[in-house]
Amino acid sequence: MIKSDKSTIKDPDVILIGAGIMSATLGTLLKELQPDLTIAVFERLEVAAAESSDAWNNAGTGHSAFCELNYTPERPDGSIDTSKAIKIAESFEVSKQFWAYLIAKNLIKIPEDFIRSIPHMSFVWGDDNVDFLTKRYKALMQSHLFQGMQYSEDWDQLERWMPLIMEGRNKSEKVAATRMDIGTDVNFGELTRCMFDHLQSMDGVTLHFGHEVRNMRKESDGRWRVKIKDLESGEKRKIHAKFVFIGAGGGSLPLLLKSGIREGKGFGGFPVSGQWLKCTNPEVIEKHQAKVYGKASVGSPPMSVPHLDTRIINGRRELLFGPYAGFSTKFLKKGSLLDLPRSIKLNNLRPMLAAGIKNIPLTRYLINQVSQSQEDRVESLKAYVPNADMKDWELEVAGQRVQVIKNDPVKGGVLEFGTEVVSAADGSLAALLGASPGASTAVSIMISLLNRCFKDKMNTAAWQEKLKQMIPSHGQPLGDNAELVNEVREYTSEVLGLKSLQD
């Protein structure tokens, strides 16, 4: 159990805002690269990983683009664009290498249910969707990162792969699926807390829960003056740091705007809440052993891609279906209803209005989702589980996401569905905005941040050598080297002790 530190380093080298997977990853990387750095972490809640990093608040898929159809869009000419899928697959392999390093060096103690092997599957029905999946499979098979993927339209084969999904389905329906057996389920909440346990044991690191960052300002000497409030005692204080990272999930945007950096001007955010249907019937849960992703319906946003997920949470096997979207003006699950209106500034009003006008289908989708009854939700579940019984499923509230709205000189404003790192020109401050595939690619995102904000040190032989120790493939694109991919996967599987649900 991580406890809040009572004392604070007066003027730390680094301030990390938010105790989620991103801050944990960045803090751990920095202390490995430069052990004498001093770091202070501030989290407004009483525990680490309580928002987006919590197991119930994200899909835990271990995003590697094996099954997520929205990462392989169809081009206007009908061909499949695999560039994003390859990048995400590479990034997840980097994350696994870093986690394996931490475990091999005995720096963190990970419960065995932190990561599990679970097949990643894509499932579609209808002629057009089957054609799309066929083309996607052939396109991905051109990359060694996806070798081992299986494709089938055979009914008997699909029944063996996913009996719950095939049970009760009309056999005249044209269906197809792909399967990757090396997919994973990851409990990012457990991982985050383990990394903070390690950080807190190190000299020069303090963690402060129940502390809210209220404001920040750049001083003439180049340092940041950060105003913090202890939510229990009401005490307010100011702390200075050379570098500030804002990794507060949905709370990052308001703090980025408060920083006043030129690079943050024009950014806005659109909050979307998530919900799952959680299975309560053990017999039904036992029938499914995979993460099965489908295709988003026409007109719905990429974040709405439906999936039926086997999960291991708190040592228990769970089965979830979703996501179902909702709308709240909160930027965090435990945030304020005033978060959205307070985020609207003169410099981001135009991009937000433009993005809103251009995304009317998203507004309609959210209205439809918010107005759904439990019966409506179960009806959509039946597209994947034809024999679903409403009494076996209950609603579980998931995390809150803030989709990024960027200023665009031509379009006025663009709504983004990925992650975005915004950093000051001098590298003294950085903020992470956005959502999926976030946690799975945290290590690659943070290395990119180090290249921006710690450029001089990243160019030194000492830091590069250490990065190679932590991430053996560092500096070598995995998409170009099949032999290296095989070596990396063999190494990480052994060190992480990847086990299937049957083990």
From TrEMBL:
<keyword id="KW-0285">Flavoprotein</keyword>
<dbReference type="InterPro" id="IPR036188">
    <property type="entry name" value="FAD/NAD-bd_sf"/>
</dbReference>
<comment type="pathway">
    <text>Carbohydrate metabolism; tricarboxylic acid cycle; oxaloacetate from (S)-malate (quinone route): step 1/1.</text>
</comment>
<dbReference type="Pfam" id="PF06039">
    <property type="entry name" value="Mqo"/>
</dbReference>
<dbReference type="GO" id="GO:0047545">
    <property type="term" value="F:(S)-2-hydroxyglutarate dehydrogenase activity"/>
</dbReference>
<dbReference type="InterPro" id="IPR006231">
    <property type="entry name" value="MQO"/>
</dbReference>
<dbReference type="GO" id="GO:0008924">
    <property type="term" value="F:L-malate dehydrogenase (quinone) activity"/>
</dbReference>
<keyword id="KW-0560">Oxidoreductase</keyword>
<protein>
    <recommendedName>
        <fullName>Probable malate:quinone oxidoreductase</fullName>
        <ecNumber>1.1.5.4</ecNumber>
    </recommendedName>
</protein>
<keyword id="KW-0816">Tricarboxylic acid cycle</keyword>
<dbReference type="GO" id="GO:0006099">
    <property type="term" value="P:tricarboxylic acid cycle"/>
</dbReference>
<keyword id="KW-0274">FAD</keyword>
<comment type="similarity">
    <text>Belongs to the MQO family.</text>
</comment>
